[in-house]
Design brief:
single chain; four-stranded parallel sheet; 5 helices; about 130 residues
């Protein structure tokens, strides 16, 4: 479904309003999430998706960079893409660096699934982990 607008100007303004990050209440820091995957496209999608959901997102293609980010920013969640080799040792290192970090593994078909549905399901998973 597409929204219709009376003018091109209204359509463009609506587009940019939709891209604007949600307003944060003062004094409430956004939940930090680190995303790791070998695909730049997938990382860009996760970045936009999760930022629009109100999270502070950091992305990287490299495990070594992920470890530095995790130690430095102490995220609540690490999202581990299927494009990375699944290694329990890497996931255990994340948990050792930040004991309360939650690690979410993306399904192997995440990048080929319907984007809207896959994105909604991921945001729902993130929210459920944070409220548990």
């Amino acid at each position: 479904m597409f929204h219709t607008y009376a003018s091109e100007k209204e359509a463009i303004e609506a587009f940019f309003r939709a891209l604007a990050p949600p307003e944060k209440t003062s004094g409430t820091p956004a939940t930090k999430i680190v995303c790791i995957d070998s695909s730049n496209d997938l990382l860009a999608y996760l970045n936009v998706l999760l930022k629009r959901a109100g999270y502070e997102v950091f992305t990287t293609k490299y495990l070594s960079d992920a470890m530095i980010l995790i130690r430095a920013i102490k995220p609540r969640i690490v999202i581990y893409g299927s494009g990375m080799q699944t290694g329990e040792s890497a996931i255990e290192k994340f948990r050792q660096s930040v004991p309360n970090v939650q690690v979410l593994l993306l399904p192997s078909d995440f990048s080929t699934a319907e984007a809207s549905q896959a994105g909604t399901e991921l945001v729902d998973r993130v929210r459920s982990v944070l409220t548990a």
